[in-house]
Amino acid sequence: MQTIVHRTMIVTVLAGILVTTAFSLPQDVTSVGKSGQSPAETLDTLSTSCLDLVVNSNGNFGNNSAGTVNMDYFGPTDCDTGLNSRGNSRVYLGEGSPIIIRRLTSTTYVASWSIYGDNRFVRAPGGNPESAFSTSSYNAYTTGTLLTADSSVKVELTWYAPTHADSCNFVVQKMLVFPATISSPVANLQIGQAFDFDIPTDSGTANNVSGSDAARRMVWLRGFNSTDTVTDCVDNGRRYGGAALLNWYMKSRTCLDSLWSGSAEASDMLRDPLGHLIPDSVSKTMHIAGYGVRPAITDQIGLLTYRDGMAGYTLPANDTLTIITAIATVRTAASAYAGLDSLKKAIDKAKMFNWKTLHQCGGCCVGKRGNVNCVGIVDLSDLSAFVSYLTGGGFVLCCLEEADMNGNGVIDLWDISCLISMLTGGWCAPADCPMW
User: Fold this and answer.
1) Where are the domains of the chain?
2) What is the DSSP letter of 123?
3) CATH for 11-358?
4) CA-to-CA distance for 171 and 347, rounded, in angstroms?
5) Which of 76-90, 103-117, 206-220, 353-367 has the lowest mean pLDDT?
6) For residue 30, what are the β-bridge partners?
7) What is the pLDDT of residues 148-172, one digit of tens each?
8) Which end of the chain is more exposed for a tag (fewer CB within 10 A), N or C?
9) Mean pLDDT of 97-121
10) In 259-270, which positions are buried (b, 16+ CB within 10 angstroms) versus exposed (e)?
11) Which positions ≥6 away from 189 have C-beta within 8 Å?
12) Can you name the CATH fold of 363-436?
């Protein structure tokens, strides 16, 4: 197979024997993959102006904590390297993968993922090839078309790394999910993603604190700073990483942001003694609706479950589910609270980047900009909401483009000055909302 050669980091890994995923309890492993092939894997490193992320043609990202290509900020001023359990600043995101589980019975699953050394996706015959591409606004890489272990669902992932300096600490991912036989629906599905953040921490090598933000459909983790006498170059308790659902839509193009569940679970609750994910444990965790995190300081895995249901999710025939997710990290901040606030703002910027630059979802901005609180008219309540957002008062922007008064992709003091002018009959005329 020809290996694609491009940009910063290219590695070709010979594919091993495919271990496939028809599981029951106790675990059975059967051979799958006759309708697809497991080719050589291609790794690529996507770069922003402040971090890198290694991605794989099999759907994995992070490459088993490869180091310094894991949404980290390691450099001359970031000295912690894991010695004496002081935090390994070479890694923020160890690795991650899509998770697609088809529930056959209450105890039997067909599970597909590409994480912890398991590659349970195969190349779909006749599908799109993997490729890298760039514009003046982003670097991107797509896996091409992959196939689940039971050949029922096709998946394509594309990652976008912004090149703008003020949008350097996030990567946006687009995931397409559609029936392998497009005319036939696929029932009893769980569609989600695992994010093994290993934020640099003083407590062991990967023990983190976790939390969630329902308003942003986000699960986050942060490092931990020990109350000891050792001086670190960076307070690890101010480092953060998180993943958030931005939007999902079908061919109708109606943009929605509902999330079945967001959770962070202890790694040893989801992995067996050899380090592999346990289908039964993962499925049961994903199936619990709402948000839940592990209160202990321990090694944790973040999970976003995009689609599920009491009997699983049915992927419609002749349609495609498109899911847009943001992955972001924060190197350090003035305090732990400020670090979380910075992470939230990074997710907000990712949503703006997705709407304005990638044009993958929109529709919340109507007519002229300025309806910051999305109530329906532009008045002083919009100004109050804007002040709260910019000063960290807790307001969450319901539509970023309504607050981006000049439409330049950045929300700052100029925009609030424009809104004040607009409300007082002054100089500023806001830009038109974009067309979707």
Assistant:
1) 11-358, 363-436
2) E
3) 2.70.98.10
4) 10
5) 76-90
6) none
7) 999 999 999 999 999 998 899 999 9
8) N
9) 93
10) bbbbbbbebeeb
11) 100, 101, 102, 103, 153, 307, 308, 312, 313, 314, 315
12) Type 1 dockerin domain (1.10.1330)
